[in-house]
Amino acid sequence: MEVSLTDEVAGTVELNPDRLQELKAFDDTKAGVKGLVDEGVTKIPRLFHHPPDNFVKATNLGKAEHIIPVIDLADVGKDPSSRQEIIGRIKEASEKWGFFQVVNHGIPVTVLEGLKDGVRSFYEQDTEVKKELYSRNQLGSFVYNSNFDLYRSPALNWRDTFMCYLAPNPPKPEDLPLLCRDILLEYGSYVNKLGIALFELLSEALGLHPHHLKNIGCAEGLLSLCHYYPACPEPELTLGTTKHADSSFLTVLLQDHIGGLQVLYQNMWIDIPPVPGALVVNIGDLLQLITNDRFKSVEHRVLANLVGPRISVACFFSSGLKSSPKLYGPIKELLSEDNPPKYRETTVAEHAAYFNAKGLDGTSALEHFRI
Question: DSSP strand E in 89-142: where?
Fold first, then answer.
């Protein structure tokens, strides 16, 4: 079922008729931001203009303490002391940064490169073919559009996206575009295995049984968002992705060589430079909620860029809007008299619905669930 414009706009930011008309005209092209670039725009439409940010430039000028940890997983099964060392690094990164990168994670470079090529091929195919797949139905097995919060966000992001759920019920191959079908399913099975391994390490970092996070369902759902950030003629006026924190338990991100991902740390924007063969891992809101603020879900953004296109694939461990009625609250074993619960219980679907309705407005969805 296609989501109607009325449904999409209901309960959103105040839209004046002119802005609504401009949004509708952009949406109706079904060509996304890439369509604007293909037309040869030299000035970006005002819909994409963002207010100047207080922290415009990244401030980590080569300082060692401002480098996101890169954690080598090669020795994780070698011996207990190597494993404990890796767990210690993951614990520190999850409490301090909410972000780290992993290398020797078990996913072949050929799969990583193949996926980036497949995603690029999808976006760079004939526009008329892509238009057939353009949709705003968030519950579809494959959803391609530009700006999921098009009618709700204060300013649009300079990127196009397609989304599909890879677990617990992988899509039928015929529901995915031929150009990236096989590689996306293959990558999804690898990320699933990696996620389970990471949840074990995170469980141990919390002092819990290795299977605790997996057993309560943190690894059940996997949602992939494949982004295409075209070259932008005026990158200083817009953003690739607005400041936000993820609504997942955990996010695994594949980014290409172009860069632009930044994390907000102590009121400074810190670059997360691409490391060949590495994957970026970050804590999501749901993991911060169930760890009662022990692990941090940190705000991050993506800059628009002059060179482009930038390709990234974010895999979110969350069943999103398709989740079960299972309630999640702070883990009892982590609570004490000195550390009472800071959040009320919620379902994954309730959190996802609130996040989607709010859109990428630069505010934290977690505050809505705080006691």
Answer: 99-103
**Residue 350 maps to which CATH number?**
2.60.120.330
Q: Is the pLDDT of residue 6 over 50?
A: no
Quote the domain boundaries for residue 356.
5-369
Beta bridge partners of 226: 162, 313
Which amino acid belongs to residue 100?
F
Predicted pLDDT of residue 5: 38
Q: What's the CA gap between 233 and 88, in Å, rounded?
A: 44
Q: What is the pLDDT of residue 7?
A: 40
Q: Is the pTM of this model over 0.85?
A: yes
d(CA 303, CA 314): 16
| Cα(14)–Cα(226) distance, integer angstroms | 29
What share of residues in the chain are helix, strand, coil (percent, to 5)? 35, 20, 45
Structure tokens that stand for 239 in this block: 């953003």
Which residues are within 8 A (CB) of 206 and not within 5 positions of it... i.e. 6 or more apart?
A: 91, 212, 291, 294, 295, 331, 334
**How many structural domains does the chain have?**
1
- pLDDT at residue 158 greater than cutoff 80: yes
In whole angstroms, give the CA distance from residue 99 to residue 361. Answer: 21
